[in-house]
Amino acid sequence: MKTKTITRIFLCNRETEHYDIENEIEEAKGKIAKGEIHRSTWSCGTLQELQIGDRVYFKRVGSQPHGFFAQGRIVAAEKVDQTRLKNKKFQRLSATYSGEYPNLRFTCEWYSVVDYEQPLDIEHRLDMGGAILQSRVSGRSVPQKDVERFEPYWQQHLSKLSEWGYSVQLAEVHRRGQYQNAAIEELAIAQKCVDAEGYFILDSGNARERTTASIIRRQGQSEFRQALIKAYNHRCAITNYDIEPVLEAAHIMPYLGPQTHDIANGLLLRADLHTLFNLYLMTIDPETMRVLVAPTMLKTKYGNLNCRPLRLPMLKSDRPSIEALRSRCDLCVWAKVARISAPNKFILM
Questions:
Q1: Which part of the chain is CATH 3.10.590?
Q2: What's the gap between Cα 166 and its chain centre?
Q3: Quick one: how far is CA 70 from the chain centroid?
């Protein structure tokens, strides 16, 4: 008979436990970003009810800010470390346990994590259940109804922080691998057609072909895009985003033929930012090399990008043309009053 999955909350107080949690979080982020699983062992004292498959959330307590910083599942410890195999007195314990009573430890895998200084604080959420808000005992189980109310907030928090590199989740990395491999192969074939013909002839009327053609056109012709990808180290010039299939070659001044495929007339941008750039809702201040966002967009999530320094290629010859940026900026009427007076600071890759 299948047992019901339990969700538990474990508390982390670095002041009393003398535990370098920040280093573990950085290690976990690095592994998860590469699609690898991060395993961790945690103290659970005398708690003996943990089962393999239980879901776990980790919450920062003690020093501010308080809140949740990691999520995962309980898994089996290495066989050589399992308490139940070392001591017959504890042979009924789950295979997750290691260590000796009363200082038991359990093993878990982390599937999503945020920086220790960026935890999810839900203390002010009036719609949250008491078990989540009042988790004062490490290892306490949480009613499923409270978990269901909590999880959307966790996912929103992950999404919000991922743009800035403050969070990562394994599910997203795995989805990228599962769904993008076929798409990448298809785009590569389509790209050859664009390079050879300059356009697609779509006699079949197939919607999938039209979509692929549209993506390729937006990404830019192969040589120009690949040059920008190399110059910007496979990352968006604004957000540092590194998922290559959604990085596009944006022309600073509109495309007027092969001569405008000069790398100095290009920026490597994430697809949504390319759209805003083309709509003149985002531009680059040529004097400060900082992002300018249109006033109408400042109250959206894109407002957080306003005044962000542009990431510039290491080679000066690959950097965007000041004249092209100035001409582009002049086309944005709103930018004439939005120019910032910050010093000329920029980020090198």
A1: 7-165
A2: 7
A3: 14
pLDDT at 164 (0 to 100): 74
Strand 282-285, strand 266-270: pairing: unpaired
Instruction: Report d(CA 170, CA 37) in Å as an integer.
Output: 8
SS3 337: helix
Q: Measuring CA to CA, which residue among 169, 152, 132 is closest to residue 57? A: 132
Tell me if 106 sits within 8 A of 89, measured CB to CB. Answer: no
Residues 25-49, mean pLDDT to the nearest whole number: 89
**108-144: b (≥16 Cβ within 10 Å) or e:** bbbbbbbbbebbbbbeeeeebbebbeebeebbbbbee
Interacting residues of 52 by C-beta distance below 8 A, sequence separation 6+: 74, 75, 76, 94, 95, 96
Q: pLDDT tens for residues 141-159?
A: 988 888 888 888 898 888 8
The 10s digit of each residue's pLDDT in 79-131 is 999 999 998 899 999 999 999 999 999 999 999 999 999 999 887 665 555 55
How many alpha carbons fall within 13 Å on the CB side of residue 117? 5
Q: Is residue 251 predicted with pLDDT exceeding 80?
A: yes
Distance CA(102)–CA(116), nearest Å, equals 28
CB-hemisphere CA count at 13 Å for 280? 12
CATH fold of 7-165 reads ph1033 like fold (3.10.590)
Nearest Cα residue to 120 out of 181, 60, 30: 60
Q: Tell me, what DSSP letter sits at residue 247?
A: E
Phi, psi of 45 (to 5 degrees): 60, -115
pTM of the predicted structure, to 2 decimals: 0.51
Mean pLDDT calculated for residue range 207-232: 65
